[in-house]
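pasting for the record
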Amino acid sequence: MRKGRFFANDEGATMRSAVLVCNLISIYCALLAVSGTGQSMRERENIVEDWGFVKVGKDKNDRWEVFLENSVIRCRYGWKPINEDEGGESFITHLIIKKNGQNQVGNESGGGRINAAAGRFEMLDASVKYDGDDFKTVRMSWKTKRPEFVAVQEVTIFPDRPILKVDYIKYCVNIVDIASPGGSENPKYVFHGGDKWKRDYVLYPKGYFYPPDDTYVVEQTGMPGDGDPGPLNYNGWFIMAIYDEQTGVGFGRVSPVESTSIIKLLFERGFELFPYWRKPKEPYSGYIFTFTRGLDEALKLGRAIADGNIPGSR
């Protein structure tokens, strides 16, 4: 019996060879159809597993830093010498849109910050809470002005979405974004319902939305406070963004109406939110997002987050 070889004058062997070749071709074509690109199944699995990552560690000065990344955005929390007399502060130092490489916080030497807070200082601890194929979450804690109080946040990133979910578990009086939206020197604000709101996009120290009993902001703004957010309320959420009108690039927030007592517009560079002002500080969740195609995309993405049409947005 011949093994391992085929001979032209052996008709049975030739037939068996032809059948084997046909079967191999069929199997190969089936694999191509499954993979879609000719990649092995193992390679396809790696693409799913490697959609992004989260990482916690210490920088060269032994201070905590956190990285969250997916296919579209790269985020870093780290220390900068803001309020250095009180120890500096840790916040988002980089929110990079990978499509154009632009950091929405601004350049390294500037005073930009996203998701900062007054009275909150250096990060005390950071850990990866969950690292899965569906999402990845990091938990962070901060030293604050009150020695007995530790601020706590959890931040989540999702596959292929320009979105960060922030769970504000224990927090200080405000949330501060002073950044470089779209890299513009004269960016534009947009809110869902802003075209129907009672006041223009007035800048700090004036208020854009605030309660009637905030006498300081009432005085600064020269208008009574707001008992009802009216057209700014999209199904229980505020949707806000700031962007470069020429390039359409910027960042925004989606924040629950119930939790957001005051909104100020900071120097055409970002937002200041006061959650549960003069109320018990209940835990709540909000969202930070980036966009590259102007106000229409910003509002569409914000509404999708508010409606729960983005995985993990509820």
